[in-house]
From TrEMBL:
One Pfam family from the record: Voltage_CLC
First-listed, main subcellular location of the protein, grouped into a coarse class: membrane
Topology versus the membrane: Multi-pass membrane protein
Classification lineage: Eukaryota, Metazoa, Chordata, Craniata, Vertebrata
Protein's UniProt name: CLCN2 protein
Gene3D superfamilies: CBS-domain (3.10.580.10), Clc chloride channel (1.10.3080.10)
Compartments where found: Membrane
Length: 682
């Protein structure tokens, strides 16, 4: 009843041992297996045992390189080094911009020129370098990884050339200070790293040539990308599963955790080694109250943040898609920008950097702060404003950027949110390697901070409970807003876990989860996720999930939408048939069948590929070659015809042949061709 008499593994071992014994003793006169040829040369001489042992150890080590854990350690190590080196280069670029801006404080015009020229040059270089070396490196990379993990082969997306273009292009793009993210590109970089490592390690063992194995390693690499970007291994694994996988193989779970944890650990150790940190801590460490982090009466405010973030996330995705579609539909603009590819990124950078110029409009939106500094200030656990007055709190250090003498902190936060919202939606359409997670994360944190400051102004002494009074912590609201808006844009819940690992505190777990779930519920009912939206824009071969209100489409069958009157190519078709098929249909791919009678499908061939093959077969060189072959064949045919074919008879028929020969002239018995070539037909 379905129970085996013996475990399969045990049976296989016993069977293998039996076969080995048979080979060893020899069945009848079967010779014993010879010692491997590479060991023969080491078995002679005084040091023979040592040499054999050394060779066997070498073979054992080479076979062990095929183990998963070696691959995952290498992947985590390489990605941590890449992440740290890029962060160092980006910080240096941003520091250089600050130094240039600060050094020219005597002349506002020179300050403006330095503030605007620096990012424009970096973004233009990034766009040009990426376009020349590998256009596949443009954008996030997560939409492409979603498609690749579904089994679609995208050419040139996981090559060394794309890896170099992505790393250098992303470093320049983020070093410019534009509102761009690094999380999506890091998923792509980690996947390319895994693919290149697989190719390298396939020299040691054939297991890395297995396609299914490579897909599993790519799934682990996606987790490593997020893990080493935020030093958040648990959130990274969960986020990669939510974003890239429709169906997730649980056997990959430990791979993702192991590689992401190792990568995050090395990434933070490098920060300690470089004297950036004293010890391994969270990237944006917060110091909220642990004994009473929030009051239950504040939960409605957190729910409002979640619902508003859901609408905001859907609007961001819609705005991003509409900007791209507008650029594509305007034929004149599209044609002009296709000729001048670097003009669009330069113009967008010029516009955004002009608006964020600190002495200009940037003073109303903390324009001089980088994304990292902005997050550090937004997660600050002190209240900036009480009763709506900005002068009651002493601003220290980088918090000074949020203070304006003629407006309060609410105006600054509202202007920051509104301006950064459309700026980020526009900036993520630039053809450079960039993501949208971090800009959205910062906007969400600012919105949460706005709600938190409003609550603090509304209840200056905190919400009264039975005996104790605890003041409201606006930094907690910022954490909730960041998780909610980024979750709404990406349609993920794991942003909650990423936030906990980024801040190093889990005190706001309940409000964060409530806000993220509500934001997802609202956003999923209105728009696809940002990655699905990009997949639709790029027309990648990927079937997105059906959204809310479309469940009746699950009843649609393939036969309801399939094209029935389809042109096809047969194995024995002629040139005329191929030409007819190509002229009569505009389909990009043509099915190849065995014959018109059997209609057995053998595969498909792309229209472009078929056209290229035909043009190659009909090229002038091929025609000359065919003519030469034809002439040679005709010459051989003439020689064979010119030779006389005798019919040798047997002894029995020789007399009959002699009598027939006496009756008939000799000419009829011989096959001749005309003596001169001029008599042959042309």
């Amino acid at each position: 009843y379905g129970r085996y008499t013996q475990d399969l593994g045990t049976f296989a071992k016993d069977e293998a041992a039996r076969l080995r014994l048979q080979q060893g003793h020899g069945e009848g006169d079967t010779p014993r297996p010879r010692r491997p040829s590479e060991l023969l040369e080491y078995t002679q001489g005084r040091c023979a045992p040592c040499r054999v042992c050394a060779l066997q150890c070498q073979q054992f080590l080479i076979s062990k390189v095929g183990e998963d854990w070696v691959f995952l350690i290498l992947l985590g190590l390489v990605m941590a080094l890449v992440s740290w080196a890029m962060d160092f280069a980006i910080a240096t670029c941003l520091q250089a911009q600050k130094w240039m801006y600060g050094g020219l404080d005597t002349n506002v015009l020179l300050q403006y020129l330095a503030w605007v020229t620096y990012p424009t040059v970096l973004i233009t270089f990034s766009a040009g370098f990426t376009q020349i070396l590998a256009p596949q490196a443009v954008g996030s990379g997560i939409p492409e990884m979603k498609t690749i993990l579904r089994g679609v082969v995208l050419k040139e997306y996981l090559t060394l050339k794309t890896f170099v273009a992505k790393v250098i292009g992303l470093t320049c793009a983020l070093g410019s200070g534009m509102p761009l993210g690094k999380e999506g590109p890091f998923v792509h970089i980690a996947s390319m790293c895994a693919a290149l490592l697989s190719r390298f390690l396939s020299l040691f063992g054939g297991i890395y040539e297995n396609e299914a194995r490579n897909i599993e390693m790519l799934a682990a690499a996606c987790a490593v990308g997020v893990g080493c970007c935020f030093a958040a291994p648990i959130g990274g694994v969960l986020f990669s599963i939510e974003v890239t996988s429709t169906f997730f193989a649980v056997r990959n779970y430990w791979r993702g955790f192991f590689a992401a944890t190792f990568s995050a650990f090395i990434f933070r150790v490098l920060a300690v080694w470089n004297k950036d940190e004293e010890t391994i801590t969270a990237l944006f460490k917060t110091r909220f109250r642990l004994d009473f982090p929030f009051d239950l009466q504040e939960l409605p405010a957190f729910a409002v943040i979640g619902i508003a973030s859901g609408f905001g996330g859907a609007l961001f995705v819609y705005l991003n898609r509409k900007i791209v579609q507008f650029m594509r539909r305007q034929k004149t603009i599209n044609r002009f920008l296709m000729k001048k590819r670097l003009l669009f990124p330069a113009l967008v950078t010029l516009l955004i950097s002009t608006l964020t110029f600190p002495p200009g409009f940037g003073q109303f939106m903390a324009g001089q702060l980088t994304q990292k500094d902005t997050l550090v200030t937004l997660f600050d656990n002190q209240t900036w404003a009480k009763q709506g007055l900005s002068d009651e709190f002493e601003y220290l250090g980088i918090l000074e950027a949020w203070r304006h003498p003629r407006s309060n902190v609410f105006v600054t936060l509202v202007v920051f949110i509104l301006m950064k919202f459309w700026m980020s939606a526009l900036a993520t359409t630039i053809p450079v390697p960039c993501g949208a997670f971090m800009p959205v994360f910062v906007i969400g944190a600012a919105f949460g901070r706005l709600v938190g400051e409003s609550m603090a102004a509304w209840f200056p002494d905190g919400i009264h409970t039975d005996s104790n009074t605890y003041r409201i912590v606006p930094g907690g609201y910022a954490v909730v807003g960041a998780a909610a808006l980024s979750g709404a844009v990406t349609h993920t819940v794991s942003t909650a876990v990423i936030v906990f690992e980024l801040t190093g505190q889990i005190s706001h777990i309940l409000p964060v989860m409530i806000a993220v779930i509500l934001a997802n519920a609202v956003a999923q009912s209105l728009q696809p996720s940002l990655y699905d939206s990009i997949i639709r824009i790029k027309k990648l071969p990927y079937l997105p999930e059906l959204g809310w209100g479309h469940h009746e489409k699950y009843n649609v069958r393939v036969e309801d939408i399939m094209v029935r009157d389809i042109r096809y190519v047969t194995l024995n078709c002629k040139y005329r048939d191929l030409q007819h098929v190509l002229h009569s249909t505009k389909m990009k791919s043509l099915p190849l069948v065995e014959s018109a009678e059997s209609m057995i499908l053998l595969g498909s061939i792309e229209r472009a590929q078929l056209g290229a093959l035909l043009s190659h077969q009909l090229s002038p060189q091929r025609r000359l070659q065919a003519l030469r072959q034809k002439v040679l064949a005709e010459d051989r045919h003439r020689l064979s015809d010119a030779s006389i074919c005798f019919q040798i008879s047997t002894e029995a028929s020789s007399g009959a042949l002699a009598r027939a020969a006496a009756r008939k002239p000799l000419k009829s018995a011989l096959k001749r061709v005309p003596s001169s070539l001029s008599e042959t037909p042309p």
